[in-house]
Amino acid sequence: MNTLQQKYAERITVTLDKYPDKRSAVMPMLYIAQEEYGHITPEGIAQVAEICDMDPTQVKSIAGFYTMYSEKPKGKYWLQVCVDLPCALRGADEFHHWLLDELGIEEGGTTADGVFTAEHVMCLAACDKAPMLQCNFHFEENLDKDKMRAKLKAWRDEALAAKNGKK
Ligand code: FES
Fold it and tell me: Minimal CA–CA distance to 73: which of 117, 128, 112?
């Protein structure tokens, strides 16, 4: 049993049960691997291949095809701010630049403590709820600076607690 199977046993079982064939679960398994390692690693690919009963080369080619998987290291929290036109009309562009300043990073950069990566993306289909972003693929909507500061603090506290073994 590999690391992912040990750490995410229930989630993996529930996900596999949704599909008639293990191979069909490769994308949700890649999400789990990315969550565990911060990006798609050879180790994660090997484990997903084992879980889905696939060749690692096939898993790697799928991970390389889709933009929601990253082979570069990301922060624990991967913030993707939509700045497409409808969101931009609701202040998303300015919000995105404010967020980068708040984190002290450039576009696509990662904070020095490794907690956050932030970048802009195109439409996430929540156009009426801007400014919005997805954090590790969970939507955060109708944001403003105060709400965002509170979220950043909560996520950073959680990341540091986990790093220090308190969680
Ligand atoms: S334009 Fe931002 S979610 Fe659609």
Answer: 117
